[in-house]
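> call design_seq(struct)
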């Protein structure tokens, strides 16, 4: 098990990472080092692939708080598509590529599971 310090919006978090089958690291615990009462961090997360390059899957289970785009909108790589609340943190889910939103399977208030397809950019 390896320990790392990761900064999210300037707040350092100490995390322990254990390597499991396939060599893919999985976070097993995290503790904020310098947390402030009532503070929530917003982080950009790497998007897992749901089948094709423009697919955007939920990186973890959570609840969609807010959609920032609509079906048919043109987006740029890195543009925020939606806000996903997971583990009491608001996470910005971003477009993996430039293109048009061709699939949008979520709405505000919907719960998603890890790996569930939320949108597709073509």
């Amino acid at each position: 098990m390896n320990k790392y310090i990761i900064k999210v919006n300037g707040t350092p978090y100490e995390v322990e990472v254990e390597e499991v089958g396939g060599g893919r690291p999985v976070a097993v615990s995290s503790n904020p080092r310098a947390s402030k009462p009532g503070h929530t961090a917003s982080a950009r997360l790497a998007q897992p692939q749901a089948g094709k390059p423009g697919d955007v899957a939920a990186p973890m289970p959570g609840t969609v708080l807010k959609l920032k785009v609509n079906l048919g909108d043109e987006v740029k790589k890195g543009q925020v598509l939606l806000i996903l609340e997971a583990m009491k943190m608001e996470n910005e889910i971003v477009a993996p590529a430039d293109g048009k939103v061709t699939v949008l399977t979520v709405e505000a208030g919907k719960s998603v599971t890890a790996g569930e397809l939320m949108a597709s950019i073509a």
